[in-house]
Amino acid sequence: MSQAFGTEHLSVFYGDFEAVKGISLEFPAQSVTALIGPSGCGKSTFLRSLNRMNDTISQARTTGHIWMNGSDLNDPATDVIKLRQQIGMVWQKPNPFFKSIYNNIAFGPRYRGMKKKKQLDEIVENSLRKAALWDEVKDRLNESALSLSGGQQQRLCIARALSVNPNILLLDEPASALDPVSTGKIEELISELKNELRIVIVTHNMQQAARVSDYTAYFYLGKMIERDKTDKIFTNPENKLTQDYISGRFG
Amino acid sequence: MMIKKAKRADKIATIVICFFAMLIVAILVGLLGFIIVRGLGHINWHFLTSAPQMIRGGGGIGPQLFNSVFLLILTLIITVPLGWGGGIYMAEYAKPGKITNVIRLVVEVLSSFPSIVIGLFGLLVLVNAFGLGFSLLAGAMALAVFNLPLMVRTTEQAFRAVPKEQKEAGYALGLSKWKIITSILLPVALPSLITGTILASGRIFGEAAALMFTAGMSSPPLDFTDWNPLSSRSPINPLRPAETLAVHIWKVNSEGLAPDAKEIAAGASAVLVILILCFNLGARWLGRVAYRKFTAAKRID
Amino acid sequence: MKKKLPFMLTILALMLTLAACGSNNDASGTGGSSEAGGETESKLSGSVLAVGSTAMQPLVEQVGQKFMADDKYKEVTVQVQGGGSGTGLTQVSEGQSDIGNSDVFGEEKLDADKAKELVDHQVAVVAMTAVVNPGVSVDDLTKEQLVDIFTGKVTNWKDLGGEDQKIVIVNRPASSGTRATFEKFALGESKLADLEGSIQEDSSGTVRKLVAETPGAIGYLALSYLDDSVKTVKYAGVEATVENVEKGEYPVWAYQHMYTKGEPSETVKAFLDYMLSPEVQESDVVELGYIPVSGMQVTRDAEGNVTQK
Amino acid sequence: MGQMGKSTSLNHNDMKKSKRREKHYWEEWVGRIYTSICVVLLLVVIVSIVFFVSSKGLATFFENGVSLKEFFTGRTWNPDESFGALPFITGSFAVTLLAALIAGPLGLCAALFMTEILPGRGKRILQPAVELLSGIPSVVYGFIGLSVIVPFIRDYIGGQGFGILAGCLVLSIMILPTITSIMADALASLPGGLRESSLALGATRWQTISRVVIPTVLPALLTGVVLGMARAFGEALAVQMVIGNAPHVPGSLTESAATLTSTITLSMGNTAMGSVHNNALWSMALVLLLMTFVFVILVRLLERRNRI
Predict the structure, then answer these.
(1) Is residue A70 part of a domain?
(2) Distance CA A168, CA A200 (A)
(3) Which of C107, C112, D215, D237 has its CA 20 to 30 A from that of B279?
(4) Closest residue in B to A57 (Cα–Cα)
């Protein structure tokens, strides 16, 4: 399962404004990479270009390469939909479908041709267990997903992403809209999932980055300043800019 | 001294605003009261079901009522797919820019076209050029043209009102855009779509100018037992002429020879207004119920 | 370009369908029944489409329903549309309908060559009389007095022997056949200008309602629309009765024309003959306030010169 | 805890667009074609209406030789002789402007009542009332006008009862819903903070409304009025019944007049297709069409200035 996944000189332009400037970053297998930096530094834009979600914004343009074991995901010939089926994504604001809990999870597999009920039930249970939500919802699977709390909804979104068995999971500030208890549950979840799939997480919360990630990259004004093992970054980073940000002198 | 003057001005303004607001309610109650009271006396089962009479009294509006409802169904069959399709294009597929603005401008122009112009266009194109003759189909297509802009606009607004995150979630799950539109966005937009469609039906039901030259001003005797759509006597043959309730009101009040023409017109107007009342209240109630069903969660926003 | 392809494709497909529809209209346009069974009268089938004058619509529609109810013509459907004499004449001359109902001669509306193609079937006579608001005391007007009123020379009833009351004219629009007939035969004028402040309504029902409600109002109505809400006025001493019209003493009348383009097809001919049959002329025509053509002792042609039958 | 089948390894060709199209490719294609058809059909219909109306409308000037000057400035309308359509154009404008003058303030009061004075209960009373007004068909409005408004004007205000006054009264009730709902939306879309800050400065509610609320949403309010006028300009049946239909510039508001739509409704049926009179009526329909464009462009200009 150890396939190379990383970017090479990746840039993202909104019209003629270059939000992300030529970033090359490699994501090792079974690891969590955290992207930190002041708001507006392009870390979320970078994350969104990995599964080409920027394509849905009409004026955005992505150049450079995203290598996934030899094939460049950014190549126009790549089938974007097949690509996105390999990469799951979760946002800051939980966005479950306006459907029941069961259907939220079963929607992906059913779309991919999984018709047998028994198999679907198994996937739903499997995904909810992985998202540590199974015990809380196992007897009200047919209730509307909107009846769950914020933390539960976010874990439901994670379960939904896992239901199609992606290889990579992108998290865009998954816990910043949640209470501390739910945030704790999400962080536990991330560290458990990492042995199954590669995780890239964007966060404002440096303690969270330190707790969950193996590698950390510091972004500033669209450029990647420094990328290293997490404890290296948070004890003595090479670059002075990273040092200032970590010690909270600015940003 | 200045404050007292300002306070007095505020009081006067409030009174004036409340007066005019109540005046509008009074106008409405007066109008509805006038129409319904004047017509109610004449409405009975016989009136609602029997065929109209040329000279003798006691004519009914049976066929006309059926024509109005059947024409509404035909029009919706044409308008809903086209209107929803057009609305989805404008909301989801149209790239913001010159062309989309031009399309939106042109659609808006069509929405304020006088219906008499659309009726005449129907006569020229649908009745004569397309050879449909005076028929329900020609009338339904003319009404569809008259109603499409409204449907496109309500659909576009309904789809734009769906939270953007739903679409993002769909994309990230690797769904095609059309799957996202039909299975994720549509169910959420459905309540306001249905309300918009029902309100549009109210307008279709009350339309007369566009129909005079397309669906015609007379309807052959209907044989309610014969349901094969091809025979010209059957009620559901879309190629037969059909005078709707609104057109009948116009015709009876202008050319009516029957002694009770005035009462027939009053009764028909009352029936028409009552039905439109049900449309409006139904749309409002359905919208509330659907909205409550959807956001069943305790989420109070 | 890939994105534009579906868009282009749909435009092309649409053009084709539009063209296809456009071309086949002449095929199905002629409503006339071509497959009329030849053997016996009773085998007739197909449809008859009559379009035109709203004034004639009640009569033709009632006779149509009786025609369809008659088991000899059970297979035939008669469809009567309104729209006005102009629409009727245009639709029949363009072959869009089998019969064009008109209350004026074709020559008055269509240009000469088109009018020549039409075959006239005069099915009834409609007489018109001037009516006034019941509050007006005048009950007899000479031709000159009527001309003075409708040309605006006289504007108050006291100049015509009535009370001091302003005259309110309730007229028809310039394009209406009823008005053309009234102006031609009651006033001996043609194409009178519309007067300032005159009210115009195309439908007889509304004219009757307005004359009945507006003090000092004068208008003109077909006999079939007369009721006690309006007061009829004698035309130079002659009462507008059926006998006077038939004898030719009361000149203000016009034929109800049912035009066909060339000789009518069999089914259409059957309907027109049925229309002229005594069974219709004596009952429906009279019942609806028209005068049977058979009863007329005088005839009149498009130019208006009367000949004793 | 079985895995849902071995996760497919991501080899190169797997990601390329395989020749045999995937299900989602066809889905996408169907979606794009279907929606494109709908929009293309809509545009074709609009273009053909404009084409038909203008081809017949312009025939008056090109084939029948009626001069544009006579049509737009001539005051006498006597078909086959003179085709001065000025009386109808003035009639249409007069009725529309007066209706807007009545319905505008009335609509503003209703909108203010719903959003400022009594937001909760006010909205529940007035909103359905206004929507029901828009539900009543124009045929019924016409007959109410004929049997209530015209006699009322004739008895209490004098004149014939018919005319511009009757027309604009009927029209103002008909366009009231359009104006009120657009104004209410505009007022509701105002950022809340604006009101609170003005009230916090000690301004009375009316000062807040007149000095803060209305000026900021003025363009949107005017949009409502313009759309109302567009609807009034195109109304046919209801106006024809109460306007009197005399083809002259009326001397007073209560004298029989005529509008473009009333004349079209009255005579289109009686004139033979292709005759000069018929073409002149189509020219009037063309004027109606052009006015619709003018109104919509006016709304666009207003919307551009309404950048809150």
Answers:
(1) no
(2) 8
(3) D237
(4) B95
**Residue D138, domain extent:** 71-305
Candidates D27, D150, D243, D270, partner chain C, best to mutate (most C CBs within 10 A): D270
pLDDT (tens place) for every residue of chain A, 251 residues total = 456 788 889 998 888 888 888 889 888 888 899 998 888 888 888 998 888 888 887 778 888 888 887 888 888 888 888 888 889 999 988 999 988 999 999 999 988 888 899 999 999 999 998 888 888 888 988 888 888 888 899 999 999 999 988 889 999 988 888 888 888 888 888 888 888 888 999 988 888 888 888 999 888 888 888 888 888 888 888 888 888 888 876 54
DSSP3 helix / strand / coil % (chain C, rounded to 5): 40, 25, 35
Q: Decide if C29 is inside a domain.
A: no
Whether residue D16 is found in the same domain as residue D99: no
pTM score, whole prediction: 0.82
Of the pLDDT bands very low, low, confident and very high (cuts 50, 70, 90), residue B296 is low
CATH number at residue D213: 1.10.3720.10
How far, in whole angstroms, is CA C240 from its chain's centroid?
19
Q: For residue D246, what are the CA distances in angstroms to B70, C64, D250?
A: 38, 36, 8
Helix, strand and coil content of chain A, in percent to the nearest 5, comes to: 40, 25, 35
Residue of chain B with shortest Cα separation from A111? B175
CA-to-CA separations, D273 to B215, C100, D47, in angstroms, rounded:
19, 13, 22
**Under a CB-based contact definition with an 8 Å cutoff, are residues D91 and D164 in contact?**
yes
> Are C238 and C144 within one domain?
yes
Q: Which residue of B has its CA nearest to D297?
A: B105
pLDDT surpasses 60 at C110: yes
Q: Does D72 touch chain B (CB under 8 A)?
A: no
Q: Which of C54, C89, C174 sits opposite D272 (nearest CB)?
A: C89
Q: Which residues have C-beta within 8 Å of that of residue C136, sequence separation ≥ 6?
A: C157, C162, C163, C165, C216, C217, C218, C231
Contact C211, D160 (CB under 8 A): no
Residue in this structure with the two tokens 């109603």, named with its chain if needed:
B147
How far does the CA of residue D31 sit from the closest CA of chain A (Å)?
A: 15
Place of tokens 């079963």: A106
Q: Which of B121, B246, B277 lies nearest to residue D135, judging by beta carbons?
A: B277
Residues D142, D216 within the same domain: yes
With CA atoms as reference, report the closest residue to D266 among C169, C203, B123.
C203
pLDDT at C303: 76
Cβ contacts of A91 on chain B, cutoff 8 Å: 165, 168-169
Joined together, the tokens standing for residue D150 give: 């015209």
